[in-house]
Amino acid sequence: MSAKPLMWTGVGLCAAGAVTLVVVAFLDLGRADQAASVTGAVAGLAGLALALVAGVGGAARDPAPGTSASGDGAIAAGGSIGTASTGGTTPPPAPPAPPPSTSPSAPGGVSASGKGSIAAGGDIGSASTGT
Predict the structure, then answer these.
(1) Which of 25, 43, 62, 97 has its CA 20 to 30 A from that of 107?
(2) pTM exceeds 0.70
(3) Taking the alpha carbons of 106, 112, 113, 118 in that order, is the dihedral positive or negative?
(4) What is the mean pLDDT of residues 34-57?
(5) Residues in Cβ contact with 42 at an 8 Å cutoff, skipping those fewer than 6 apart
C-alpha cells in the first residue's frame, strides 16, 4: 500500500478525533478529559510502534535495478553519493552541498567494476579511491 492513502487516512482520523473531543467537551467536560487521556495514550503507543517499524524496516533498501559493483572495494549507487572511500583511507571532507541536480539518475542503473572503482547514477560529493 502506498504512503499517500495511509497519510490521508491518518489526517482524517485525527480530524474526526479532534471534532469528537470538542463536541464531547461542550456536552460533558469530565468525559472529554477521560476520552482525551485514553486517545493520547493510544496515539502515543501507535506512534512508538510506527517509529520502531520505520527504524527497523527502513534500514534495508533494494538497490536500483541494474546497479552492480564488482571488484575489491567497488562502490555503485543508483542515486547520489555524499562521501565514498574505497582504499581504506579517510575520504576528504565533503564540499558544501551543491544545489539539487537537475539531471535525472541513470535509467539503466550503474556499474562499477575493478579495484576501487566508484560509480553513481547521480552526483558524487567526495570520493577517495586510495590509489
Answers:
(1) 97
(2) no
(3) positive
(4) 83
(5) none
